[in-house]
Amino acid sequence: MRSIAFLVLLIVFFLGNSCRRPQPVVTKRPPARVVKPPVAKPVPQKPVAVKPEPTKPITATIVAPITRIDTLEAEELVDETPIDNGPVPPKREFRAVWIATIDNIDWPSKKGLPVASQQRELIEMFDQQQQMGVNAVIVQIRAAADAFYAKSSEPWSEWLTGQQGLAPNPFYDPLTFMIEQAHQRGMEFHAWFNLDRATFSKTASVAPTNIVYRKPEWILTYGGRKLFNLGAPTVRTYIAGIVANVVREYDIDGVHFDDYFYPYAVPGQTLRDDSTYQANFNGMKKDDWRRDNVTKLVTEIRDSIRDNKPWVKFGISPFGIWKNRSNDAEGSATNGGQSYYDLYADTRKWVREGLIDYIVPQVYFSTEFSRVPYKTLVEWWCRNAGKCHLYIGHGAYRVGRGSERDPGWGRFTEFPDQMRYNRQQQAVLGSVFFSAKSLKNNPLAIRDSLQTNFYKYPALVPPMTWLDSIPPLSPRDLKAADTADGVELFWHQPEEAEDGDGATYYVVYRFEGRRPKLRLNDPRCIIAQCMGESTTRFIDKTADPKKKYTYAVTAVDRLHNESQEVTVKVR
């Protein structure tokens, strides 16, 4: 009798439990991260500024009943997720492309294209770059005292509409369009300005409103071009004002200059700025005075950016060689043109004094070029990057064009060797490629090499702690549900962090098994980046319905500081 009674009790117990409704998921919010004070900066404290609205999200539409899914206990962790063989690729890496508009090098493909064609070309280009793994674009928006944007005192660019000063018809603002398209794809947008050119050539279209007519006393003629006289304080202030206007009016992530300051030498010609030198004499020799003019311009622009939007980055891409060792014992073991002497650009001074946030030396040489070997110059920059991020500028346009002078570019191995060498250098935090057209044309499969190898897995942009060192708070109330389309994750936006930042995007990680080790530094575990603060749903359509998973979600702010994770188990 006792055994029969015991059996009845067991049956009642199991029947009662089988009728219980699935419990809702309650994710364990991690403890608040101890916030370290921001790194001291050589700039004024962050002023109050209105931050741009986040990109509008594309949200999921399915909300399914919640199946039984548990929270993750840290003490249970073991390594279960299978991962590809080989070294762990970098989770943080700047991956950018230069998009040149001057002379229609990259975009638009020709002058005066219909607006719809301009936009279609840009979308196709950004789509290809996103697919390739790029996380930033550097677009030339002012090539010669002109503008690829509406809110400008300078005339519309001839390379956009075919005639300088002629607006797009039907009207649109290309810069606003480009920024929105880049941000939707999770790519930073850096606005690229040319500083020295007022006209491009003798045959260039020049509008009556061009600065060469309004302020002829600011202009020098050299090499068939009209150039800004950087020795005049009013000229430097004008250029800084052009940049500050774009920073104020547009949601850009960075300001970018290339290698043009004082012009490259033209045989038989002299840059006639003697009267400006005499009028602004400060006791320096003329060469030093010119270098000081460029440094003053860099400083003035840096200060104007900080005063308007302290979160906007400032970067410069100079000619690769600062000085040759033959001219200065601290120079590189190279034998080529020198930015210090030829362009009056003391690039090492800028990085040592923290005047810029990142530098992209143009190392457009192969590893076999005897006068300037690639690795020699990169190694010099690794030792001299100073207080800013170092990204390497690659001459993608030279790939497949080997010559007797520089044979390395004819070899399939040259570009991959450069990328592998970069990743061996702790100081190198990324690459920028010149230019978009070269990557599109894919010489020696350079684009394929990036997409299927070096950029196969996503990478977050490296943070700049001197601009912002405070991470956002974690997403709230992470839940998960099995649906017909896959595993759906949904969460709430984090509260504002100490500095007022919320989330600019979210990173979703997936790990196999019920007790996996959370390899948050391994980008092979990232399955999605959800752009926009309110994009708080994601469906993992690649999940195997027979497997158990643990998901982690983090919030990332505009300067790419990442929060602590919240986690949830599935099955």
UniProtKB/TrEMBL annotation:
Gene3D superfamilies: Glycosidases, Immunoglobulins. Pfam families: GHL10. Keywords: Hydrolase, Signal. InterPro entries: Divisome_Glycosyl_Hydrolase, FN3_sf, GH, GHL10, Ig-like_fold. This is Family 10 glycosylhydrolase. GO terms for molecular function: hydrolase activity. The lineage of its organism: Bacteria, Pseudomonadati, Bacteroidota, Cytophagia, Cytophagales. Residues 93-409 form the Glycosyl hydrolase-like domain. It comes from Spirosoma terrae.
